[in-house]
Automatic annotation (TrEMBL):
Protein name (record): Large ribosomal subunit protein uL4m
NCBIfam families, per database record: rplD_bact
Region of interest (Disordered), ranges: 29-79
Membrane-spanning residues: none
Biased composition (Polar residues): 29-42
Gene source species: Punica granatum
An example Gene Ontology CC term for this record: ribosome
């Protein structure tokens, strides 16, 4: 199969890949961490002792940050960790990752990824035939074939993605990329589509 040069043969730019991976990892953070401020913490608002005459330090509440069970100052609040990155840069990152795998000879294209049976041993023997392969990413065009899903779900070194879910971080995590013809065509089409502004 002849691969599109502007998708599978672009100059390798580590800086672009680094930016895209940082964006992906930052965007997937949940950001649900939370601490309680002095207005949210449970406890009385009463002044613990009078201002003068006791010899102790003056306090207006027992729920300040210096007390046990008190508030947390400047602690984390729920927020998005996502950083901004331009769509053109995101697209270029995917092209660079695909080009890197193609340049290493670690990109395999099959006619389709449909299996006659859901047995895992078929996938295991297939992966063993590959040279220098530790982790494999299978990319299919449309919805994942049910037999393929069942055959790979128990293997930690084989993962399956539809073409729409293909991303830079997943490509970098796996040393070998196996794609169907349909997936390649869909990705090239996606890379050639105009960017919505």
């Amino acid at each position: 199969m002849v691969l599109a040069g502007d998708v599978f043969d672009v100059p390798i730019r580590k800086d672009i890949v680094h930016r895209v991976v940082r964006w992906q990892l930052a965007k997937r953070q949940q950001g649900t961490h939370s601490t309680k401020t002095i207005s949210e913490v449970s406890g009385t608002g009463r002044k613990p002792w009078q201002q003068k005459g006791t010899g102790r330090a003056r306090h207006g509440t027992l729920r300040g940050p210096q007390f046990r069970g008190g508030a947390t100052m400047h602690g984390p609040k729920p927020r998005s960790h996502a950083i901004k990155i331009n769509k053109k840069v995101r697209r270029l990152g995917l092209k660079v990752a695909l080009s890197a795998r193609a340049g290493e000879g670690k990109l395999l294209v099959l006619d389709d990824l449909e299996l006659p049976t859901h047995k895992t041993k078929n996938i295991v023997s297939y992966v063993k035939q590959m040279d220098n392969t530790k982790k494999v990413l299978l990319v299919d065009g449309g919805p994942i074939d049910e037999n393929l899903k069942l055959a790979t779900q128990n293997l930690h070194y084989v993962n399956v993605l539809p073409s729409i879910g293909l991303n830079v971080y997943s490509i970098l995590l796996h040393d070998t990329l196996v794609m169907s013809r349909d997936a390649v065509n869909r990705i090239v089409e996606r890379m050639h589509a105009p960017i919505n502004r």
